[in-house]
Design goal:
Radius of gyration: 18 Å
Oligomer: single chain
Number of strands: 0
Largest sheet: none
Length: 132
Amino acid sequence: GQAMKSRWRDLIVAGVMVATAAVLAFLTPDHIRQDLGMRILGIQMGLFVVVYANEAPKTFRQKLPGRCDPSTGQDLRRFTAWCLVFGGLGYAIAWLMAPDEVAPVLAMGLLGAMLLLVLARVAWVRSRGSRT
């Protein structure tokens, strides 16, 4: 059922990523510049984060540790998913539009900032839960 469908999707995503890397590795410098190959892989990785971040609230349904009520837990999962979606989009857009020397740092900075936001929210929820 759903698990098999998810596995097939995962295999297809992995196959596309490996195939893209292989094609880019075997193209000669006459056909494609190395920085363009890095950009394509960076965009692909950002979109990979978006696809899987969108699945997070649907996949992780177990209760969060601590005294977190179910609605707060679901809110936290949704917040995490949205942050990762925006982080992945930022990552992909940075690789698409930023200058070569700035793209890797900007991409990681955008995704990292969203991860820090998630960690801050988790800490906030935990601190609120321990007082009630």
